[in-house]
Write a structure and sequence with these properties.
Elements (H helix, E strand, L loop, with lengths): L19 E2 L5 H10 L6 H11 L13 H10 E2 L4 E7 L5 E6 L5 E9 L2 E5 L3 E3 L8 H4 L2 E4 L2 H14 L7 E4 L9 H12 L11 E5 L3 H10 L3 E5 L5 H7 L8 H13 L6 E7 L7 H10 L5 E7 L13 H13 L3 E4 L31
Helix pairs in contact: 1-2, 5-6, 7-9, 10-11
């Protein structure tokens, strides 16, 4: 049986005013919570099973806990799912939930069914501070980070509306930059992979980043879930324009950090997300540059047709050019796939998630990056 993931940082019970929200606590943090209550640490396993496997959120229904403990839980803890503000289904079966948080912010989670898997894309921030110039989420500004409970809650909502076992993969590719919300994202990912949580393989949980190098280096020390990187350009000049974070985290720093992340993980590779923008980053010379940049790094390049949105400054590359680009990569030994556009009729496709952001600040490169 897989043990709880090790953490290089001490885990203590979090002291905070009011009840402790249990939904997003990974097993070490749950164990610390029960320890602080004077209970045995194995209670963490029981609680995770009740929440994430039996879908029970009422302490009174957790029948293998004593009445005294259930009373203490009512006094010191809570479990609250976010509210579903909208539930939309696309013609291709893609399904999107607009999830309203307690403060009124809304984020979006998208389920993408495929013949051999079902992928749930979750949000990690209300809005996004990164300012990528091809993304509708960035246009809406940024409000705040999500808690681990708000992230895990999106999965609980989706699972309540889908058949048992429908979710086989979880990707942090919704609204926000996951690695600027590091601790809650890692805690949520541990809930997803724990044997007493969602029991997903670490290969089936993917954190996607626009390239926060110091956080990738930190990831290497404490987790081994899959890593995807929003690359979108093969050189710094173009990437500075498309992904402003690149000015502080250039390719000369980003690519070695990504390579190091998988260096001690046999048979693993980095997924590079590359949105295809007509006449911008889709030419043969861009393909040649990309081949050279990725030489020696176990890689999969995911070519993404641009999904237009109102006010977008770019257009979608023609399909023949996307195919030609992919062929160039394949000819040089790179794995390259063309992502099928899914859910665009409900604005659920890549780059289209906007939610509803309260007290938004303009999207821009975050100072902590």
């Amino acid at each position: 049986m897989r043990s709880a993931p090790a953490d290089h940082e001490a885990v203590h019970a979090e002291r905070q005013p009011g009840p402790v929200e249990l939904l997003g606590l990974d097993r070490p943090r749950l164990a610390a919570f029960f320890d602080a209550l004077g209970e045995k640490r194995f209670r963490a396993r029981q609680m995770m099973q009740w929440l994430h496997q039996r879908h029970v959120y009422d302490f009174d229904e957790m029948t293998d806990l004593s009445k005294a403990l259930r009373q203490r839980l009512r006094e010191n803890a809570r479990v609250a799912l976010p509210e579903v503000a909208a539930d939309q289904q696309a013609s291709d079966g893609t399904r999107k939930w607009v999830v309203r948080l307690a403060d009124g912010n809304c984020v979006e989670a998208v389920y993408i069914p495929e013949p051999k898997r079902g992928t749930l894309c979750v949000s990690s921030q209300a809005g996004c501070p990164m300012g990528c110039t091809f993304c509708a989420t960035a246009e809406g500004g940024f409000s705040r980070n999500l808690s681990a409970a708000e992230i895990v809650g999106q999965v609980h909502i989706a699972r309540r509306h889908l058949p048992e076992g429908a979710i086989t993969n979880i990707v942090f590719m919704g609204m926000g930059e996951p690695l600027l919300n590091f601790d809650p994202v890692i805690s949520a990912s541990r809930v997803f992979t724990d044997d007493f949580g969602f029991v997903l393989s670490k290969r089936r949980v993917t954190i996607s980043t626009s390239g926060v190098v110091h956080a990738i280096e930190r990831m290497q020390r404490i987790t081994d879930v899959s890593l995807a990187v929003s690359l979108h350009a093969p050189n710094n000049e173009l990437r500075n324009e498309l992904v402003p974070l690149n000015r502080k985290n250039p390719l000369e720093r980003l690519l070695p950090a990504c390579h190091a992340y998988i260096a001690d993980k046999p048979h693993r590779r980095i997924t590079w997300e590359y949105v295809m923008l007509d006449g911008v980053n889709d030419q043969d010379e861009h393909a040649r540059e990309l081949i050279e940049r990725l030489r020696g790094i176990p890689s999969k390049v995911n070519l993404i047709p641009f999904n237009p949105y109102p006010g977008a400054r770019y257009g979608r590359s023609p399909q023949r050019r996307v195919r030609r680009f992919a062929d160039r990569l394949l000819e040089h030994g790179l794995t390259a796939t063309i992502r099928e556009t899914r859910g665009d009729d409900i604005d659920g496709a890549c780059g289209q998630l906007v939610g509803e952001i309260r007290d938004a600040r303009p999207s821009k490169l975050a100072g902590t990056a």
